[in-house]
Amino acid sequence: MGNFGSNLLIAPDRSQQEYMTVSPVSAGWEHLNFAARKMVEFESWEWETGENELALVLLGGKCSVHSNRGKWVEIGRRAHVFAGMPYTLYLPPQTRFTLSCLCENLDFAYGWCAATSTHPARLVK
Q1: The whole model's pTM is what?
Q2: How many other CB atoms are found less than 10 A from the CB of residue 27?
Q3: Is the dihedral of CA 70, 75, 80, 81 positive or negative?
Q4: 9, 12, 53, 114: which has the highest count of C-beta atoms within 10 A?
Q5: Mean pLDDT of all residues in 118-125
Q6: What's the pLDDT at 23?
């Protein structure tokens, strides 16, 4: 069994746009990186997955994602984490994307890790 000590309790830094960042080194994991970010209306965020696959989970709000793998417009349906199930967007390695906030407050989390194979981008509702 793993060591489930207090090192897994990480307080968010709400003064930052990316208010939570966890790396394999900081968490004692082998592969997974994790972060959470807040944005306001009309803001956008660009990222490239590189050799990693990535999952974006909309915690609250709506956004659009444009990438070299596809376009997803007005994704998301809940105001906050207690208002139903989230939308999740899977993006494979070598994906460049721009996420645009379409609401007053967007909150999303994303996890990424090295990938040994490629699968199609997919929106899970």
Answers
A1: 0.86
A2: 14
A3: negative
A4: 53
A5: 96
A6: 85
pLDDT tens column, 9-21: 666 677 778 888 8
Q: For 90-108, how does the pLDDT look when each residue is reduced to its tens digit (9 = 90+)?
A: 999 999 999 999 999 999 9
Torsion over CA: 74, 80, 83, 87 (sign): positive
CB contact burial 33-63 (16+ within 10 A = b; e otherwise): bbebbbbeeeeebebebeebbbbbbbbbbbb
Q: What is the C-alpha to C-alpha distance for residues 80 and 68, in angstroms, rounded to an integer?
A: 29
Q: What string of H, E and C letters represents the secondary structure of the chain? A: CCCCCHHHCCCCCCCCCEEEEECHHHHCCCCCEEEEEEEECCCEEEEECCCEEEEEEEEECCEEEEECCEEEEEECCCCCCCCCCCCEEEECCCCEEEEEECCCEEEEEEEEEECCCCCCCEEEC
